[in-house]
């Protein structure tokens, strides 16, 4: 178990170092070699955790999905319209703080989704769909849209 903890810690170190370097030098100016040397690891060790530099951004995207789950739970006792507003407000705050990195992350997520390598967009859609379905069951919203396929339209229809 100790070895698994060390692996998790090293992955986090690589991730946070990469993000720091991306912010400082710009994503395109940071190489895997630069990340590895800044972490004090071999280039091959980087590839044990991330197949490509782009996967650091995908990892950021998946961590944002984890954050979305936390925020969703945080407001579970709030009325649906207010809950969705709070969720988007918190996500917007994170976006504004890290807009350059999150733009890159979104771009890479979309590019990867087209290659069917990422589930970040699907996870976001599933979370929002679940919220809307819950609201429909509880009769706290009334919408003609099928939330499974049109969760964003349903959100817009709430307001």
TrEMBL record:
The organism's place on the tree of life at top rank: Bacteria
Residue ranges of every copy of the HTH tetR-type domain listed in the record: 8-68
A Pfam match: TetR_N
Keyword set, alphabetical order: DNA-binding, Repressor
DNA-binding region listed in the record: 31-50
GO MF term (any one): DNA binding
Presence of keyword Cell membrane: no
Protein name, per record: Regulatory protein, tetR family
Organism encoding this protein: Litchfieldia salsa
């Amino acid at each position: 178990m100790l070895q698994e903890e060390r692996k998790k810690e090293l992955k986090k170190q690589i991730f946070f170092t990469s993000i720091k370097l991306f912010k400082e030098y710009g994503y395109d100016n940071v190489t895997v070699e630069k990340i590895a040397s800044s972490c004090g690891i071999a280039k091959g060790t980087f590839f044990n955790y991330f197949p490509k530099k782009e996967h650091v951004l995908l990892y950021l995207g998946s961590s944002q999905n984890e954050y979305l789950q936390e925020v969703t739970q945080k407001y579970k006792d709030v009325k649906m319209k207010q809950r969705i507003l709070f969720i988007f407000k918190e996500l917007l705050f994170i976006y504004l703080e890290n807009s350059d990195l999150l733009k890159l992350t979104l771009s890479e997520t979309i590019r990867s989704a087209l290659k069917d390598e990422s589930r970040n967009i699907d996870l976001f859609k599933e979370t929002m769909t679940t919220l809307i379905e819950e609201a429909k069951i509880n009769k706290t919203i009334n919408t003609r849209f099928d939330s499974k396929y049109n969760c964003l339209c349903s959100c817009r229809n709430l307001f």
